[in-house]
Amino acid sequence: MKSDKKIGIAFSGGGVRGIAHLGVLKALNENGIFPTQVSGSSAGAIVGAMYCSGYDPEEIMDIIVKTNYFKFMRPAISWTGILKMGSVLQLYEMYLPVNNFSSLKTPLIVAATDIKRGKVAYFSEGNLIEPIMASSCIPGMFDPIEIEGNFYVDGGVLNNLPVEPHEGVCDVVIGVNCNHLPVEHNIKNIKNLIERTIIMSMNYNVYSRKSKCDFFIEPKGLAKYGVFDIKKAREIFDAGYQYATEFINSHQELKDLGQSTVKL
Hints:
Blueprint: E1 2-3, E2 7-11, H1 19-30, E3 37-41, H2 43-52, H3 57-67, E4 74-75, E5 83-84, H4 89-95, E6 108-114, E7 119-123, H5 129-135, E8 145-147, E9 150-154, E10 172-176, H6 190-207, E11 215-217, H7 233-249, H8 252-259, E12 261-262
Parallel strand pairs: 2-3, 2-10, 3-6, 10-11
Antiparallel strand pairs: 1-12, 4-5, 6-7, 6-9, 8-9
């Protein structure tokens, strides 16, 4: 696909809620909107890597459900985390057989947090799988990922909507957040309180970058789904697709962007 404008899409993290990104991608693609480059944190990085490698949104959805991503994680015997992500490597190797950013059909930028230096790191060349694992490495739950002597955790800690790599490069920037938090009048227990507080923090991180986006797509009510609620995958996918379809239809400039895209 070729457009007369360069389009950058940034995907947020959010665990299984990131499946909504696939629904958004399906709606964008159906309307002729294809990214020139993609960026992502955590779940957004996983979705981005699969999409940029050539899988379509429905294929990625099927892979996530079929493999049950989380079964590949095993207990970590260390003080740094509860689970190790090393065993996820075989899953990535199965679907991303060439472990290098250069193998991707669409350029990808992966955001991770350099835990020792306390800053965001962006990966766009060299090995592909390790940065994806680092970007989705929830601190305290998983052991940090070591890359060239530095240790990295979830990109969403410092940047849960990595739009910065698109600035000055793309003509149009689309941000997609999968953690919309509805008004809650009844916090039932401490678990609900903790989950809501974490999502509020994540969204503050995201909303501080909203002004950098030409279009900001945020399917409603996704925060009601748990981070590991894989049984609701299809429901989450459909929520992303339906909202994005309505969003595109109500934003003529975005719709026009798709109409200016032609098949090579």
